[in-house]
Amino acid sequence: MNGLVALVAVAAIVGLIALLEAWWYHHQLKKIPYRIHVNGTRGKSSVTRLIAAGLRAGGVRTCAKTTGTLARMIFDDGRELPIFRPDRANVIEQKRIVKTAVAERAEALVIECMALQPLLQSVCELKLVRSTHGVITNARADHLDVMGPTRLDVARALSATVPVGGTLLTAEDRDDSLRVMSEACQDRGSSLKNITAADSASITPEELAQFSYLEHAENVALSLAVCEQMGVSREVALQGMWAAQPDPGAMRVHQHTISGDSWHFVNAFAANDPESTTRIWDAAYDYFPGASRRVLVMNCRVDRIDRSVTMANACVDWRTYDRVVIIGSGTDVFLRRLLKGGIDQNRILCLGNATGDEVVTMLLESFAAEAAAKSSQTPQLVASQGDAIAEGSSSITATDSTTTTDTDAGVLLVGIGNIAGPGMALAEFFEGQEGWDRYERPQSTPARALEMV
Predict the structure, then answer these.
(1) Sign of CA dihedral 187, 188, 190, 196
(2) Where are the alpha helices (DSSP H) in 289-435?
(3) What is the pLDDT of residues 274-318, one digit of tens each?
(4) Helix (H) or strand (E) segment spanning residue 111
(5) Strands 167-170 and 191-194
(6) Which residue segments constitute the domains of the chain, with CATH numbers given?
(7) What is the Cα gyration radius of the chain?
């Protein structure tokens, strides 16, 4: 009997301590007037950084935390520190972020949702963040094994971070997803502000060109709307956003001249759902219309088999590409899907954990072998084309120099799938290797091509 009494007493003490800790934590949360919880399928990290930069520029003392490519704590002076994780990522680390923000006397905390499980997303909002402003960038078909099976289920899962008695802002534009978010807002007594296509179109090409990377217009419009909620003007917020350090997974383009040809590499590894990646491929296709070779570089992850399947199913129907380079782990799943979709095995290079130098070398060898095979098989065709040129024929005007543009690229590489592991290593190679310079858009080139994805 005495043992049972002691057990009840211990349980009561533990329960009391838990209640006191919860009370103290919520008391600490209230010391941060603006708490912005950023969720969504694509663009969470970029939007988190943009909002924080805009608020800082407006004089709001702001801390931020991104989860994306590399987990980072961003302080009011712009300093960044990596998030220490003794083991796997855990949502409880959000409490440490709040504690740090309070110690920094932050007036605003912009925090990226790090949960995937719908229940954990709800816990993050209702227990750990209790946001005044919620942000859902978009709701697309990704992580369907956790939030699916459909895109609309993803919208429902993301709506778990709608604030109670606050404001939700989103750039999602599908009516069915917006209805789901609206119902969540009604349930929690929050208002919904939707960023429309017109809002995104108001971000001018000149404004987008000020970013050091390829930023999406809807991300900027969404972030500006959040800053406006805190009283920061559009002009001031933009100045801060232009000066902010981008996420390591931000989409950049680098260029180099190799064997006399101009090569361009588009880092789109962070876009890993079929819809976003399809848009990027189409945009890159149009942005560099003079490319003679187009190459997909897919980084696979053995723990993201579902993503490899959905990405392979999507890209078999894309506009023509000359090669598919498959890197990473679990590449066999992606490879089998490509072959099943009718992609010629001679257009596929499965390179595992190849370095940047090895990827470039293997592509050069593949292109040379293909050219040699064609020249040995079609000598009469080559001769007839030479006769046509000599006679001034217009039958092969596709090779006329008048078709060239400011964005001609001998080889275009687009990295997709996953940024982690070999994807990050490859991106760092193209961004840091001598000779690979950041691409500067010629003034005559339309600025919106890659931004509107």
Answers:
(1) negative
(2) 305-315, 331-340, 356-377, 379-390, 422-432
(3) 888 888 898 888 888 888 899 999 999 998 888 899 899 999 989
(4) strand 108-112
(5) parallel
(6) 32-243 (3.40.1190.10), 251-361+408-441+448-452 (3.90.190.20)
(7) 25
Bond from prior residue into 379 cis (ω within 30 degrees of 0): no
Residue 375: helix, strand or coil by DSSP?
helix
Mean pLDDT of 392-397: 31
pLDDT in tens, 82-138: 887 766 667 788 888 999 999 999 999 999 998 889 999 999 999 999 999 999 999
Backbone angles phi, psi at 143, to 5 degrees: 55, 40
Q: How many C-beta atoms surround the C-beta of residue 27 within 10 A? A: 10
CA torsion sign, 125 to 275 to 357 to 449? negative
Q: What angle do CA 236, 238, 244 make, to 5 degrees?
A: 110
Q: How far, CA to CA in Å, does 161 sit from each of 92, 196, 219?
A: 16, 21, 18
Instruction: Tell the burial category of 156 from Cβ atoms under 10 Å away from its Cβ (0-12, 13-18, 19+).
Output: middle
